[in-house]
Here is the input.
Amino acid sequence: MTASKAQPIGRDCIAVALDVSTLEEAKRLAGAVAPHVGVLKVGLELFVRYGTSAVEAIAPFGVPIFLDLKLHDIPETVGRSVASARDLGVRFLTIHASGGPAMLRAAANAAGDQLRLLGVTVLTSISPDDLRSIGVSAPVDEHARSLARACHDAGVTGLVTSALEAPVLRRELPSSFLVTPGIRPSGAARGDQSRVATPGDAVRAGADLLVVGRPIRDAADPAAAARAIADEVDAALAERA
Here is the structure.
């Protein structure tokens, strides 16, 4: 955050992943958490099953929508897909930073002023061993930095990164908008995530937006879980101010 920007409140920094199987479940979860969070995220599960209807079903809650499709294809296809997402009226859209400069530029050129692109660096489920198994010898943080720089150079100023890499990206690319998945409140199970952080630690690391899925979705009271995370984020923002 730059000094000229108003200090956000905790709820503004939370994107809830609507990772459920049906539109009815998605609307029920969205209705429970919408008063307590800043963004609602529609991911692959809902979009593959329902297409644009998934976005249209969530829009009435009046919360910005994050369409998490992690686009990765030839530049022409990605550019046209970004334009289609832009026309849906979503606020955020993910693309893979590893798609290369031409793909990233095509995406940036198609995004317009209202759609913020988010370049996915290294998924939070990926471990150093996973990278080595696909031929990437660089440490996770160096690989993330390289991909983040490629995004920045192509005009993609939003980045998806774990909280472990967020501090160095915040220092090196201070104007970037950092989105951090793999958020696990203290004591929560990691699940299939490899590189995780608590909400407070992610904010202190420099994250602007936290993606929270299972800790809210699977809670007995999702609204209460969202409020508790917002309170933790508020405390961390006060430390960072």
Summary: The chain has one domain: 10-240. The CA atoms of residues 18 and 28 lie 10 Å apart. The chain has a mean pLDDT of 92. The domain at 10-240 is CATH 3.20.20.70 (TIM Barrel).
